[in-house]
Structures are given as C-alpha cells and as structure tokens.
Write a structure and sequence with these properties.
There is one protein chain. By secondary structure, the protein is an alpha/beta fold. The chain folds into two domains: 31-248, Alanine racemase (TIM Barrel), CATH 3.20.20; 251-364, Lyase, Ornithine Decarboxylase, Chain A, domain 1. Helix content is 28%, strand content 22%. It contains nine helices and 18 strands. Strand 10 and strand 11 form a beta hairpin. It comes from Nocardia donostiensis. Keywords: Decarboxylase, Lyase, Pyridoxal phosphate.
C-alpha cells in the first residue's frame, strides 16, 4: 500500500464524464466545444484521455502548455486563458504554437498584439451572475462596454476576434447565471456586428458544479438553460465554448488519508487530525466552501460531530469546524479515511513542502500497465 496521503485518479471516469457532458451539450443543433481547464487536474494521463476524446484545453501558464504538448495535444487545441501573463510568457506560448489567448485589459491586449501577432483573442468581461460557492470577486473581467471597445481594438491591431468570454464562478449553483452571462455576451456580439466585426465564438467558461455533500443542479439543466439562451441571444453561426474543470475530474479522484490523532479540546469539541490538510491537497476547504464526503473503515459505528484538521502547525490548517461533519466515535490514530470527489484542485493545489510535508502523491489507475 502506498504511503498516505495519496490521490487515486480513474481516467475512465474522466472519459465517462466528458462523454456525458458532450451529450447534453449536443442536443440543440448548436456546436458547443469543450475546453478542459488543465489547472483542475494537471496530470498527463488525464490530459491524454481528454485529448483522445477531442477536447480543447484551457492553459494558465507556459508550464501547462508544456504539459499538454508533451502529452501529444496539438498546440492548435490550446487557449492561453489566464488574463494575467507576462510578455515573455505570451512570446513563449506563441513560439510553441499557441494561437488563442484571453485578455481583459488594454495592456495585455497590446502585449498579445506585439508578441503573438495574428492570434485569436477572447475578451473576458465580468458578468452580472449570482455569486457562486467559490467566487472570483473582482480579480478578473472588465465591464461589458469595455469588452466591446477592446475587441474592436483587437481587430484594429490585426488580431482575429474570437469573441467575449465570461466565468460565472467556480461551483455555480444557479443555472440562470449562464443565461445572464450569455445575454450580456449577446449584446456585445450585436454591437460588434454593427461595427462590421464578426464573432467566431462565445466562451461561457466553467463553474459547472459537482455534488459533494450537497445536491447540485443537473448538468442537463445547465446545458438546456445555456443552449436556450444561446438560441435567443447569439447568431446561429456562433460557437459556444465551455471550460469545465471540476465537472470532468472531481468524481474521478479519491484521496486516501490516515488519522494522525484524535483530541477533545477544552471546549469539549472532538478534533480529528488527518495527514492531509489545506497545504497538501485540501486548499478548497478554505472558508469551508467545498464540503467533501468522508468514508472510513469504521463506518457503521456510532457517529458524532468532529472538527477536521490537517497535520501542520499552522492554525489555519483546519478543514471543517463550522460544517457539520459526522465521523465514527471509534476513530483512532492509524485508521484509514477516504475523501471522496477529490479529483479536482487537489494535486494542483498541493504545496511544495510547507512544514516539510511533501506534495500530494498521485496514482493513476491503469498507469502501471502502460
């Protein structure tokens, strides 16, 4: 047995998730392209499976570009979707064959025009969508009117206008969020058409939710809402791009961890310490936004509430103390715990060596047979 903690990924589950999403996006006659957000699970075997299915890839850095190219993904399928990038990174991406970029400022647009001449660009605007479970706040996206101006400017600079793009926030639970964003994107597309500028694509981002401890809207509901909005607000020839990360890989992963210790604090609350915490894979428990489910070898024994914490000496390395987590009262040091639905944003959020703990080890099912 590998040393705990470790993440086990199932590429076949990723394939199933991709095909299910592709199916619900293909029912209205409009082309909807799936572009995997590599940052969710930057594992070569996962990238290879999705490449074989025909996916495109949203990359956030030169490092992710290199990972995709090494996995055999053609550069033509990559989009450098991070609006925050250095001129040197744009130049290197262009040198490696990347011809699609996202931006949200005039400065970044100018850098793309200089270092990736002729590239296709998508301008990210801040949609008026309801707040998601893990929102981006104001970090990304310009005002819709500014997106219109910048895309027109892109045409003047000799760049190919892809179109507007938006993101409704990670783990978005309201299907109407995509309708709102598509309606706003449609207004930008119409205004560009009035200027004689055609739009090839509207990128509706990621945010597709996964059921952890709580139920979420079905992907089919979100797809139907989005496709209906596209039919109402976008020209028929305009492609949609969807950029899922979590929705493709979360359910394909299970973290195997171990109980380090159990303690009753002075206030009487029971604390269960695991050998995995916020700094070696569980970063998405910050603010307890994502509530993972736990299973143990003692399931079936009596349960009670527990505070769940990681192994480091950082006081913030506490996974759940407001969320009601029920764990067997018989748990002891050395017991095995499995954290379900952890295929997304675990290996990629793992620190290099905080407190001397190594990054999360990843095991891919079937890899030993390759």
């Amino acid at each position: 047995m590998p040393e705990s903690p470790y993440l086990v990924l199932d590429p076949e589950r990723v394939r199933e998730n991709y095909r299910a999403l592709d199916s619900v996006l293909s029912r209205a006659g409009r082309r909807a392209r799936i572009r995997f957000a590599v940052k969710a699970c930057p594992v070569p075997q996962i990238v290879s499976v999705l490449a074989a299915e025909g996916a495109e890839f949203d990359v956030a850095s030169v490092g992710e570009i290199g990972l995709c190219l090494a996995a055999g993904v053609p550069a033509a399928r990559l989009c450098y979707g991070n609006p925050i990038k250095k001129a040197a990174d744009i130049a290197r991406a262009h040198e490696l064959g990347v011809r699609r970029f996202a931006f949200d400022t005039e400065d970044d647009l100018a850098r793309i025009a200089q270092h990736a001449p002729g590239a296709q660009v998508e301008c990210r605007f801040l949609a008026d969508a309801p707040e998601s479970r893990t929102p981006f706040g104001m970090k990304f996206g310009c005002a819709p009117g500014e997106a219109l101006r910048l895309l027109a400017r892109a045409a003047d600079l000799g760049l190919a206008v892809g179109g507007p793009c938006f993101h409704v926030g990670s783990q978005q639970l309201d299907p109407q969020a995509w309708r709102i964003g598509i309606e706003q994107a449609g207004a930008i597309v119409a205004a560009l058409a009035d200027k004689g500028i055609g739009v090839a694509v509207v990128n509706i981002g990621g945010g597709l939710p996964v059921s952890y401890a709580d139920p979420v809207p079905p992907l089919e509901t979100i797809a139907q809402t989005s496709l209906a909005a596209a039919a109402q607000f976008l020209p028929a020839a305009t492609d949609l791009v969807v950029e899922p990360g979590r929705a493709l890989v979360a359910t394909a992963g299970v973290i195997h961890a171990e109980v380090v210790g159990v303690r009753t604090a002075p206030d009487g609350r029971r604390w269960v310490y695991l050998d995995i915490g916020r700094y070696n894979g569980m970063a998405e428990t910050e603010n307890e936004y994502i509530a993972y489910r736990f299973t143990t070898d003692r399931d079936g024994d009596p349960v009670d509430e527990a505070v769940v914490a990681g192994p480091t000496c950082d006081g913030d390395d506490v996974l759940y103390q407001r969320t009601r987590v029920l764990l067997p009262t018989t748990l002891r040091a050395g017991d095995q715990v499995r954290v379900l639905g952890t295929g997304a944003y675990t290996a990629s959020y793992s620190s290099v060596s905080f407190n001397g703990f190594p990054p999360l080890t990843v095991h891919v099912l079937g890899a030993e047979r390759e």
